[in-house]
C-alpha cells in the first residue's frame, strides 16, 4: 500500500522463501501491514496486491489483484474523518479477475538466461485473467493475516 510514485513510502509484506512446492492449496500466514505507516492520502481507495514467484532469482509468475479500501458506513463514506478509522474500513478484493503474468525463465543450471534484463523481457511474457472465486470483503484487523495460493 502506498503511492506508486514513491516506492520508499509503500507498505508491504515480507518476502517468504518456500521450498518443496507440491500440487494443491498452499496456505501462508503473514502479518498485516502497519497501518501507522500508510500515508493518510493512500489509506482509502484502489490499490493492488502483487504475489510473485521466483526460481533461482528469476521471476516466473506474477499475480495481481485490485483492492478497494472503503468505509462500510454511508455517513463515513460521505464525510470521511481526517484520520482513517481502520476498524471501519472494508477491503474489497476483486478476486474474480486476477492479472496473471508468466515469464519464461531458465529452469536448469545452464548459463543461458531466458529473460535478459531490459526490453526483451516484454517479449518473453504472457498476461491473462483467470477465473477464480468471486469478490470478497476482508476487514482490517490485527489478526487478518491469512492468505493462500493454489499451485496447479
TrEMBL record:
BP GO annotations: DNA replication-dependent chromatin assembly
UniProt-listed Gene3D superfamilies: Histone chaperone ASF1-like
Keyword terms: Chaperone, Nucleus, Transcription, Transcription regulation
Alphabetized InterPro entries for the sequence: ASF1-like, ASF1-like_sf
Keyword Nucleus set for record: yes
Pfam family, one: ASF1_hist_chap
The protein's name in its UniProt record: Anti-silencing function protein 1
Lineage of origin: Eukaryota, Metazoa, Ecdysozoa, Arthropoda, Hexapoda
Amino acid at each position: 500500500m502506498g503511492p506508486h510514485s514513491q516506492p520508499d513510502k509503500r507498505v508491504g509484506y515480507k518476502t517468504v522463501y518456500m521450498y518443496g512446492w507440491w500440487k494443491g492449496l498452499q496456505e501462508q500466514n503473514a502479518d498485516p501491514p502497519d497501518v501507522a505507516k500508510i500515508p493518510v492520502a493512500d489509506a482509502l481507495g484502489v490499490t493492488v496486491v502483487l504475489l510473485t514467484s521466483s526460481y533461482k532469482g528469476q521471476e516466473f509468475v506474477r499475480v495481481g489483484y485490485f483492492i478497494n479500501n472503503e468505509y462500510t458506513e454511508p455517513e463515513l463514506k460521505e464525510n470521511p474523518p481526517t484520520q482513517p478509522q481502520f476498524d471501519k474500513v472494508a477491503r474489497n478484493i476483486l478476486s474474480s479477475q486476477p492479472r496473471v503474468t508468466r515469464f519464461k525463465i531458465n529452469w536448469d543450471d545452464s548459463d543461458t538466461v531466458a529473460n535478459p534484463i531490459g526490453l526483451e523481457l516484454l517479449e518473453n511474457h504472457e498476461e491473462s485473467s483467470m477465473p477464480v472465486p468471486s469478490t470478497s470483503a476482508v476487514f482490517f484487523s490485527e489478526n487478518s493475516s491469512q492468505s493462500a495460493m493454489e499451485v496447479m
